[in-house]
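Task card 7
Instruction: Convert sequence to structure tokens.
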Amino acid sequence: MSFTITNLSDQELVSLQMMASFFRVTDTSSEWGNNLVRATTGSEGLAPGATTPELTIRSPLGYTGTDPRAEMLENSQFVDATVKLVAKYAAIQWTHVKEVPIERQLVAQ
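Output:
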């Protein structure tokens, strides 16, 4: 998942973390994987009105297979997934930001 963050407040954001939790659409109660990225740190805060560079969070899990590339996404074992994005500023609790489906695509490692 790739995204940017824009600071809409009138204060500098000094400690912002983003976490993505990945779920298979057939089992949304069990997290399939997650990962975390720091959007800002105390020394590199996000000024009011500023936007971060593009941030990317990848799941530590995915699919591998022996099918030809053209057939891999059509495999009956392939299950679509969604990602839930949450944010945490300083010591404030995690806050839900967005949930989106993950587009089917092949990526080379």
